Structures are given as structure tokens and as C-alpha cells.
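Q: Okay, next protein. This is Sugar phosphate permease from Sanguibacter antarcticus. I've checked the sequence twice, so it should be correct. Can you predict the 3D structure?
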Amino acid sequence: MTTADHAPAPLSRALLVWGTAIVAYIVAILHRTSLGVAGIDAVERFHATAAVLSLFVVVQLVVYAAAQIPVGVVLDRLGPRKLIATGAALMAVGQLGMALAESVPLAIVARVLIGAGDAMTFVSLLRLLPSWFSPRRVPLFTQLTGILGQLGQVASALPFVYLLHEGGWTTAFTTVAVVGAVAAVLVVALVRDRPAPPAPGEPHEAPHVVHAPRPDAALVDGVLPDLSLRAVLRTPGSWLGFWTHQLTAFSLTTFVLLWGYPFLVLGQGLTPQEAGALLTLNVIIAIVAGPLLGEFTARRPARRSRMILVIAVLMVVAWASVLVPATPRPMWQLVIFIVLLSLGGPASMMGFDFVRTSNPPGRLGAATGLANMGGFLGALVTTFAIGLVLDVVRPDGRYVLDDFRIALSVIAVPFAVGFVGLLVSRRAVWREMGRLPPARGA
């Protein structure tokens, strides 16, 4: 007897639970990206060099990445609701710390709290999906999760920047902290880990589904699966998810979290408003591309990795188009750059589908955490390396385009590593496919 990881529930109830968790995720992205648009203000407030400024983001990313597997293991045991609420509360405290901090050490402590809370949010939200939606709908809702979460980036690029410039540092970050606290309360009130089992005799949509008391109690083909972390690490599909996320997400994350705004304003000569509009375009592209890639994933699972490789090549071409020329690019070319770079967001979400189709429900949290580490490990190394190079080539901090061209070129290394990792892990999945159903291909 096989149990599904989802239970029958009215779609309206499923959407309410998912929508509330999405609100928490949007606020988490706002917390995550707020320092990126406040980078120039942070230099003045903390009298920081480029290396110190990048350290704020790197510390946040180190905590985020390091927490992924531990959070995933705890998630499989405690459930998504507790972790999403705890994460929202931690980030609210962290943003309040940023509002009050006037020294680098205090700001770093605040970023640690934000990174820890952020680490609990996304993987927990993904863990909700198979509990509330049918397997056919999960790829689409995975993409929608990534898309809607990026509204937090829009909030940091527009209303947060307005608050920062009009009300000042303390007002802007305190406001975001209050929003985070409200998100935590909403999660506690409205989110549940899974639908309640129907009462005896009560009609429901899928009578064949057997309700397991815990997600890790589900049987797979009548056998209790190995739910250990070791099993996650031995599964090729887990690593294919890791390298997919690394290859497609790391440069976009680096660009959005810190170096994109200075590059566009100081390197390309755009106004803050123009730079904010381009950063917002990233979200629009995700809204368009995400559902298309989600439907492609559901219909053509055996071609997922091929699509990932195509998108990664397009991202490399996009970076070359703005880093090779020695003069600022016209706006139309920067728009194309952002469009191609932004494809990495929805493409990285495809990595979680490799995880979902390669692991039993009871270890999805740990496996999702492993995959989610990929892009953020690449981003933290890249972000810090860019800051170090900028300090070497322009110690006075008066950056020009050539400085960014040199510093941002370090992205070539993680791109190369990501391509190799993806190809190696894909071959491992192909070898395993000899004993797996075709739908679980790559």
C-alpha cells in the first residue's frame, strides 16, 4: 500500500495556507534584499569599505547556507508551520537590530539573525506544497512560490528605498521589522502543516489517500524508506538539485543582494530610479517565465537538465555582454542582460523538482535544504570575492566601470564549477535511471 504525501483538502483552504506562507516568504525576501539597495547608505553609516560591506551579506549567506541541512532535518520532524513562524520572528528581531546598529559588529549580529530566520522559510514553504496540492500541481506551485516571493525584492527596490531616503535608516528598518512580526503572527494563526484527516463517513476528494500520522511515516511501495541524512547525500537526484540551484542562482543572487545596484549606478551611470526599475524587471521576467518552466517540468521531466544547461549558457552570454565592453551599455542592452540573468530564478526552482522526484516524503526537508545550499554557497563566495577585488583595484571606494568589470569577472569560476557539477550529477542520475521509472528522469 502506498501513501501520498498530500491529503485531500478544499482548494480554497490549500490556497489560504499557501498564501499565508507566501506572505511570510515575501517578507523574508524583503529582509534578505533590503541591505542591497541600502548598500551606499550602509557605507556612510558604518564607514565601511567594500570588503566590510560585502561581509554583511556574506555572513548572512554563510548562516543561511550552513543552516540548510540542519533546518531540513528539523523540518522533517517538527513541520513547516513552526519553522516559518520562528524564522519570521528571528528576521524581525534582526531588522530591528539593523535599525538601531551604529557599529559593524552589531550590524553583523543582526545579519546573522536575518540569515538564520531566512534559512527556515523557503525550504519549509516548499515542504508544505506536497501536503496540500496534488503531485501534478506541485511543479507549478513551486514556480509560483519563487515568483511571488520575489515581490519582496520589489518592496525593497521601491517602498523601502522611499522610506530609506525620506525617513532615514532607522525608520526604514524599523518598519520592515514590524512587517516581519505581523507575518509571524499570521503564520501561527493560519498555516497548518497538512489537512486534517476527514471524519468517518465524511466525503472527500481522494478516498484512496491514506493519512499517515507523520510525513516520515509514509510508505513507498509498501516499504518504509531510509530517512537518514546519509540516504539524502547518497541520492544522485539530491545533488542534481544542488548543482542546478548553484549554477542558475548564484550570480543572480550576488547581483540582487549587493553588487547589482552599485554596478548599475556607479558603473553603468544609471540613476537610482533606473537601477531600481531594472531590478524590478527581474521579478516581471520571473512572473512570465516561471509558470512556463513549471509546466515544462511537469510535462517533460526527462528534459529538465537540458533546459537548465540552455538557460545557464544564456546567463553566461548575458554577463559577457556587459563585462567585456569597456564602455557603459545602452539601456536596451542592460534590459536584455537583466532578462537573461533573471531566467536563473525560475530555472533554479527546477532543482527542487529533482529533489522531490528522487526522495521519499519523509526526507524531503533535508534534501531540499541540500539543494537550496547550492546557489547560496556560490553567492556568498562570489559576493565576498567581488568585494575583495574592488578593495584591491580601487582602495578609495570611488568605483568606475573598469573596477566592476574586473571584480565581477570572478563569476567565471563558480560558473565553471557549476557546469561540471551539473554534468557529473546528471550522469549519475542517468546511471540510476536504469532502475527508476522514466518520470523520475533528468
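A: Here is a summary of the prediction. The chain is about 75% helix and 0% strand. The longest helix spans residues 236-267.
Q: Noted. On to the next one.
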